[in-house]
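User:
I would dearly like some help making sense of a protein record. Take your time, and here it is.
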Amino acid sequence: MNKLRVRYQKLYKIKLLMHFTTIIRTIEGILFGISTVTESAPHFRDNIDIKRYMSAAIIALVPSTVAAIYFFGLRVIAMIIVSYITGGIIEVLFALVRKKDIEEGFLVTGLIFPLVLPPNTPLWVVAVGIAFGVVFGKELFGGTGRNIFNPALVGRLFITISFPQIMTSSYKLPFVDGVTSATPLVLFKTSHTLTPWFQLLFGATAGSMGETFRIGIIIGGLFLILTRTTDWRIPIFYIGTILGLSWIGHIFIPDKIASPLFQLLTGGLLFGAFFMATDPVTSPFTRSGKVIFGLGIGIFTLLIRVFSGYAEGVMFSIILMNGFTPLIDHIVLSIKYRPVENER
C-alpha cells in the first residue's frame, strides 16, 4: 500500500495537474487515508474521523433510501444523482478557488437533500435547491465545519418558499403514478382526518421520499446512537418534548392538536430528529446545550404545526434553533465555567 501511495503522489509533480492538486489530494485521502497525523500522544489525530462519521451516516440512511426507491420508483435515483452532481460540482469549484481539500460532508448532504423532497419534485428544482443550499448554507460561511445552518435544510427551505405550488403538488402515494395526494398532516389540519398508525409506520402514505418508511428511520437512528456517531440527547429530548406537549394539548384542544403517536409518526419529525437535528456542525457541542436544543426544536415544531399556516414545522424549527446554537453553547459554558475571583 505504501508503494502504491508513493507512486500516486508522483501526480503532484506533473505540471499539467498542478491546478488540480485539491482533487488529487482528496482522492488520495479516500484511497489511502490522510497522512497528516501527529507522532505521539496526546496530540494524536485520527485520520478517518470525518470519513467514519460520513460512512456511518450514509449506512444509517440506507433503509430510508431503499424504501424510497421501492415506494416511488427509479425517479428517486435520478433525483439523488442530480443532487450529487450539482452539489458536487459546486463543492469542487469552491475547493479549487480556495486551494483546499474537498470536504466529505457533502456525501451526506447530497443524499439527505433529495430524501426530504416530494417524489414528484422536478429535477431542475432539485438542482436549484441543492445549489442554493451548498452555496448559501455552507460555502459562503467558509465550508464544512463553519456553517451555521444545515445546508440541506437551507436548500429545502428556499425551494419551499420560492416554488410553493410545485412543492405542495408533488406529493403522491407509494406505487401510484401521476396522482397527487395530501400528506397526513395536511389531512388532519384541513379535515381532521387521522391516518392509521400502521400506515404511517410502514410508509403507506404520501410524504417526502425519505420520511415515509418510519421503521427504517428508527433503525437508522438507533444505529447512529448505538455506534456513538450521534448523541442521544437531541433526538430523545426532541421526541420527548413533542410527546409531552401534544399529550397535554390533545386533552384541551383535540381538534387542533392530534394525539402524541400521530404527531410522532407524521411529517419529517423522526427523520429530522435522527438525521438533521443531530448535525454535529450546526447543533450544540455541550451536553446541556444538546438538551436545550432538543427541547427548543420540539416546542417550535408543535407551535408551527398547530398555530401557523404550515402543516409541518420540523424544517423551520431546526433552522431556527441552528441560529441559536452558538448562543446556547456560550450560555452553557458561561454558567458551567464561571471565572474564579481571587481571594484577598
